[in-house]
Design a protein that fits this description.
Helix content: 25-40%
Distance between the termini: 38 Å
Number of strands: 4
Shape: globular
Strand content: 15-25%
Order of helices and strands: HEEEHEH
Number of domains: 1
């Protein structure tokens, strides 16, 4: 029985989330990627609250494409700025079942360069 790409990604994400959780001291950065866009949230799983978020569909980032590495870097930079404003310095990175490659890796590298620790 052939599995779709989405089913396989969801299985990987479930496997990752089994061992990964965000707390108030160290929230989770959840990345979501489509062919055209990328978005991310910083989440406190204990309280069930999204602390800050950023997406390539926001008006401020409409000029950049979320479907390439430059767009992913722009979204990551915006998320890092919002995290600093919220007083967040350390996080746990949740790649969402996506390969740590390309846009997801560029996103993570930009967050690190902006000062978030994980």
């Amino acid at each position: 029985m052939a599995r779709t790409t989405l089913e396989l990604r969801k299985r990987r994400h479930k496997r990752i989330r089994k061992n990964l959780s965000g707390t108030a001291a160290r929230p989770r950065v959840a990345v979501s990627r489509t062919n055209k866009h990328i978005s991310a949230q910083i989440i406190d799983d204990v309280a069930g609250v999204t602390l800050c978020a950023s997406s390539s569909v926001e008006a401020a980032l409409k000029s950049t494409s979320g479907g390439n590495i430059d767009g992913a870097k722009a979204v990551a930079q915006q998320l890092a700025d919002r995290a600093k404003a919220a007083g967040i310095t350390t996080v746990v990175f949740d790649r969402g079942g996506f390969d740590y490659h390309g846009r997801v890796a560029a996103f993570a590298d930009t967050l690190r360069a902006a000062g978030l620790e994980f």
